[in-house]
């Protein structure tokens, strides 16, 4: 084991320890992620809807439209209770608060009128009394809500039995409640709280507290109380965890046993919301009475009275992502108890998840450090698959909620950290080699070497390339004036500044030949518009050199500048790895390369810095180009037409260049025909050239000398460039 590997193991194990401690502390973010995972499980396999004896009497929009806005007078609520009782409802639970006097009661209305005889008030009906008499001796359960004001505690209609010490400090805390009307509280068969998720900031209702506590007394929730009243039970039996004070594990109601969390909460296992669960209140309050079909649905059922009307703002979100009336969750709580389909998170779940993080993390650190990141990744993927499968199967067949995310996320972080350490420290030598080669090879070539099998074999392929040669003018004279070290500094500055434009325009730097640069485009990978990109790189080189000269970057003094010649040609060439088996170079060879070198040399004779061949010009017509004449090349039966690159696309579209191009075209025609008017045409072209930003004086002065030469010798063959057997 190397020292770097030892450090890698230590760093990895420290990260595993931190992640293990973090999971043991169970921060809010982890809890939220875990709950979202459990929600997804329910969405994949929700609890199936069963036609159980549980119904919701819905004060829906249709009921409000028929009987008026909410709240309804309580004599109508009394009628609702009477008809439900007559239909045989086993329990009638109101998910509605009755904390204020009925403002629509005749007695209440007349009391607000000044001067009304008190004796008359006593003879007027009171809706609260009607409602109280209606619920008396009936299985009616009323609800209360938590309050932050006052000290009211509702009556507890049921008894509690404990298998151990009373767990008064286990459930959520109640400090005060909304008060019930005294006569209603006295006559109700049961009283339960309607709070679904007190103190939970989440909008999703995942658990329901079946009990609340003020430290001395326990208070059941509405659903639990409705079930107790329907069963005719008088007492709840609570079981606690052995040797763990203030915990609840089970709540027994009649013959039904409900597993709960340590705080007495029930994990909701919801079914999709369906219309079968609801009966509109207007069907109960219809003038003709309750229909036989509705009576059959209500007989022996636990009935919850609530509202789905959006304006009454009792809409909750379930784990399935559905927005449902709060009363439906009370009904689903009873349905879940009756069906026996429960969800639970066992006490040992946290310990198992913490242990899995420690074991899996340690394994990944060892594999990443001593084997390979790829093997660790494969192992991590296997752990991920096993964690997901185990968690899903535990949910599907056992109703167990085991977190798959904590081990997976912790394992991913551990693998990433261990891999990053190996990359930054253990594999540093390999990266240094790559970085060294990166100074000589283009990024595209490096990518090909890394990702292509047998990319470093000898051999080449024929493909169309655009080749560029760049050369410094009068380099011999420059080198004679400078010391050898100064020459090296000058070349480094020049080559670095200009060669980067090749890379920026997706080219490949082939080599530096003394004071020259050779580059090509369209290899080793295809490059779209490669001719245009080569011309664009040449124009960028011209601009960079002008800036270097203006800033005296070469240290030659103000007024002294460096000139270049650039030749570009497009054609077929052989490109590939060439050399010996142990030492080779990626390069291009062929006639296209030779032609490019001769075009670059011709820049001196044409007196212009950038020349391209006709094949390149045809592929980059958007640039400002002027014909520069034809070259006679060694070994070629035809002459090679060349074009001077004046500027970019913007200059090519300008009216100044359009007039220059027209005048230059007339000049080329006059030269070709040896017209005596060539001097007049030349003067026009020179005048038009003064309007473009690129200096063309030497270019046209050379053409003028050649024109004078062949006008004095009319028998001479028409040429624009010097009569050269071959360019060097």
TL;DR?
The protein is α/β, with parallel strands linked by helices and 728 residues long.
Task: Describe the protein's architecture and organization.
This protein has 728 residues and is an alpha/beta fold. The chain has four domains: 124 residues; 281 residues, no CATH class; 159 residues, Nucleotide cyclase, GGDEF domain (Alpha-Beta Plaits, 2-Layer Sandwich), CATH 3.30.70; 80 residues, no CATH class. 46% of the residues lie in helices and 18% in strands. The protein is built from 26 helices and 24 strands. Strands 17, 18, 19, 20, 21, 22, 23 and 24 form an eight-stranded mixed β-sheet that branches. It has a six-stranded parallel β-sheet with strand order 5-3-2-14-1-13, sandwiched between helices. Strands 4-9-10-11 form a four-stranded mixed β-sheet. Strand 7 and strand 8 form a beta hairpin. Helix 13 packs parallel to helix 15. The longest helix has 26 residues. It starts with a helix and ends in a 16-residue tail after the last helix.
E-strand count:
24
Which class best fits the helix and strand makeup?
A: alpha/beta
The biggest beta sheet reads: 8 strands, mixed
Distance between the termini: 61 Å
